[in-house]
Amino acid sequence: MITGKNYIGNQLSSEGNRTYKTYNPKLNLENEHTFYEASDQEIEKAVLLAAEAFKTYKKTSGVKKAEFITAIADEILALGDLLIQTYISETGLPEGRAKGERGRTVGQLRTFAELVSEGSWVEATIDTADPDRAPIPKQDIRKMLVPLGPIVVFGASNFPLAYSTAGGDTAAAFAAGCPVIVKSHPMHAATGELVASAIHNAAQKTGMPNGIFSNLNSSGIEVGVQLVKHPKVKAVGFTGSIRAGRALFDIASQRPEPIPVFAEMGSINPVILLPEATKKRGEILAKTYANSITLGTGQFCTNPGLILSIKGEALNNFINILSDEIISIEPSCMLHPNIIANYENNKTNVLQQNGIHVTAEYNGDLLVNHARQTIIKVEGKTFLENPKLHQEVFGPFSMIVQCKDTEELEHIILNLEGQLTGTILAEKEEAVHYNSVIEALQNRVGRIIFNGVPTGVEVCPAMLHGGPYPASTDSRFTAVGIHSIKRWVRPFSYQSWPNHLLPDELKNENPLGISRLVDGNPSQRKI
User: Is 178 known to be catalytic?
Assistant: First the structure.
């Protein structure tokens, strides 16, 4: 059942006076449920409960945390078709996408449960004492990762499940030992409440402390700002626009006690199309990229918004085929009227710049809130001289930059902002001749792809979903995969501490049987 209320720990609450509704973009009308904006008192209570819960939860064993996280996955699946249909009504996305994203969300949770159940992720490191070392005796020093404290997670507009209420940020924070307060995204508040109910039920069934999770509704920015400013909040997870992510980063850095904001933000995901690949596989690549650019109506942070190549007949053929292919694809619905309005405004701003040539724009009849996919081209010199052309256009849009030579291609790459991904489309025998281009791209991105598409982020330990600013606020960390847990912890050392007072991860007996680094050597043995 959807109540429209806020989850404040284990209680539903509706103290606020302001309300709002979500929107069905396909039907172009409001959904039925009314949501209560979280009040100042509810925000304060949620944070205080989280801080109190942290005292207990930070000491909870990996096995118990795994039970809780696994139960969340089970409870999400138990929501059944209600969750799927609610998701569809708030996004305009198809059922297949909803079920696929649910599967990804559940899979992420189970992966983190496995990680903390095994336990070696804490990176236990032990340097034993050597009292006979001269001239200074060596002390016994032991280190491990420990949780930061209450975490605020902002739901993402384009992923109501995988990057929102029980998405990767929340799953990683729970795994690390941190309570979570979610600032639910107003575009899919009902989906968020259903998932919040699943987390609440899982917490109740597994005996987690009250306050380990809260879900706060808000149609504006006020609730999020208050949460980030609160002194008991210790870190923030965000997926969204550069403007909003940077605003949160600035707020967090200006606190009396600054805290980290791990924001995954904008990216145009440059694709480098090398000459031999253009000649030999231009038609296939054009068809592949027409599908990638329009996938999910272009509403992915890894959408290929920029294609760079060297001028010539082969590139002209590629542009012609890509243009024909992309307008043959049936337009699809965007997430919200505000999203499509931003898409049209940002696209118009680009089209108004000098030197822009539209090679394809869908000109058939459109259903409401459906987007016109567009391809444009521009000369390399023009692109270099106009920073406005470097900005993300969130939607089914891509720009082809025609470079006069390899030197200009490399120069353009070096002048790009930080990106989540970069792609090299090349014949195997030609890639070795473009080392400087590849190295330039590597310096600007978090993930580099060879002969593929950037859309699609595999959830696995080797995945890096992040990149140099403004793709993310800290390129050392990933927002996807088990290593994303490192955002919510800090290293902590014990010196000369009695063995019986140490956490189990660092005790001589190694009661958890985890892998540890002992005097420089990996070991699972007792000391």
Answer: no
